[in-house]
Design goal:
disordered C terminus, single chain, 64% helix, 12 helices, 3 strands, Double Stranded RNA Binding Domain, mainly alpha
Amino acid sequence: MSDYQQTLQKIAAALGHTFQDSGLLLDALTHSSFRNEKLAVVRSDNERLEFLGDAVLQWVISTLIWKHFPEATAGEMTRRRADLVCEQGLARVARDIGLGEGLRLGKGEERSGGRLKPRLLSSALEAAVAAVYLDAGTDAAMRVCECLFASAITNAAPGARDYKTRLQELLQSRGQRPPRYETADARGPAHARSYRVEVRVDDQLLGEGEGRSKLEAEQSAAEQVLVRLEQQATGVRAVVETDP
């Protein structure tokens, strides 16, 4: 058994699913850059599976939230779902199960650190969920997702990842203007669009982020700014506390 076959087995075990058609998992881990370089031997990339997996995840996560929070309002359930299925949330789950190790990438994506990119990891996770669904149906997809997202569903507060709101509140508490988000770049086909957004206050660039939608990119940019501001605040506190 090759090293890569062992990696596939580890990922399948982490998903908690034994594939009848192992080719589905292989497709789910195949980026378009890899297929483009090896058209003669690669049957598919993961873009079609990603499309299906997005819909499956929306349905499954909605169902799990509905079951776990019988008293939650529709607004709260919407915020919880958005936290879980955003690019960063999906990438976190993908990293937890080692999905990046199994990605089949073209040379350019490999050199640029594609195995760690949230966009590629989240897309591969969606494709993997679709692969489970096609391989064994809705019950299997539900079971896998419940295992993958169990702790995140029960531990996360609704809207905990709403970084835009948190950043605006922090800036307002400092007497600053609300942040402004500007789309700096948009690339990729319509079904796999990627956006880069800059966040500014007046003319000052505070940070930038990327995502599969403008909203995700804005949230990512706000998160980066919050992390940096918190690090700066921690540094100031440390200096004050150690100053004789």
